[in-house]
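Translate sequence into structure tokens.
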Amino acid sequence: MSRLIYDYSKSVLERVSFDTKLFCKELEKAIKMLLPYEIEELTIWLLNFTKEKPELRQCLLIINK
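Result follows.
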């Protein structure tokens, strides 16, 4: 079940990546729902995803809170 949440969270983040504020908000929601190992996977995915979108890099600070 939680794998579905992880995949859903990634798809939502991809869809809202046009807006930095919305992206950060959805990332906060995802972190609240995911298990610790899924957050680690999401972090790796985010690092790769934001290579092409440097404006979203500031949202990575949310994970380190």
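Note: The mean pLDDT is 93.
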